Amino acid sequence: MMRPFGKLSATARSCLMAGVVLGAALVPVAAQAVTYTDGQVAIRSDGVVYLLSGGQRRWVATVQITDDDINAYPEGDPIYTGLAAIGGGGSSGASQTVAKPASGSSSSSSPSSGSSSSGSAATATPTSATSSSGSVPGAAAIETPTGATGNTDPNLPIEVDISGQPKFQAGERIILDIKTKPAANCQLTVKWPDGTSAAQDKKAADSRGKCHYSIEIPSSQPVGTGTLSGSVQDSANHNSTQSVDFDIITKG
């Protein structure tokens, strides 16, 4: 049977009181360590966005649009309180629960995602079809040019994006971007209408996920169709390729 508090020795009473005080002091600290980020949005070093809620990380599908499109929206009041996933409590804002990124490693990236007109996150599933488009956090806006061929890894989008119409005259320049995710390695080869090929410099995608090229068309090239073949590879050895045609037309 436990002895009444009043009958304990002075030393025992002192130890008991010290334990109670120490426990009371540590409980808020432990609770804070677990919950002070609850409801906050965090960005991992590879650009993947998570909502920290209920002791879990929930991947947030981002929408890839230009700065001008973002700035076209009127600015509302800032949100200083935490968010919560749909079905969670204590929310002053809303966020949909969506599929996790394809890999849990720090070098992973998210699957392709669609977006709604309201700008909210949309549920996404990976795709690997040649004609599909992808959205990877931090990557440039990706589309598939008409008539393009290749093989796209859902973890590594690619678009060989020619500036303007793909019709040129000999002596002009082809201006294009290979769009992918930041830091991916880009390669580009041009096959000219006369059957010769020219490999371009290897480049690393910039912070917007773009590798920029400016290619002069030799004045000796005949009228005909050429091909721009691009490929990208990331640090996780994901590979994607895409080829698009262009035409050299008669000078008019």
List keywords for this structure.
elongated, three-stranded antiparallel sheet, 2 domains, Immunoglobulin-like, 252 residues, 27% strand, alpha+beta
Tell me what the structure shows.
The chain has 252 residues and is α+β, with helices and mostly antiparallel strands. It has two domains: 91 residues, no CATH class; 100 residues, Immunoglobulin-like (Sandwich), CATH 2.60.40.2550. Strands 4, 6, 8, 9, 10, 12 and 13 form a seven-stranded mixed sheet that branches. Strands 1-2-3 form a three-stranded antiparallel sheet, with no helix packed on it. It has a three-stranded antiparallel sheet with strand order 5-7-11, with no helix packed on it. Strand 2 and strand 3 form a beta hairpin. About 19% of the residues have low confidence.
If classified by CATH, what would the architecture of the largest domain be?
Sandwich
Structural class: alpha+beta
Shape: elongated
Distance between the termini: 107 Å
Helical proportion, percent range: 10-25%
Order of helices and strands: HEEEHEEEEEEEEEE
Q: Kindly report the average pLDDT value.
A: 74
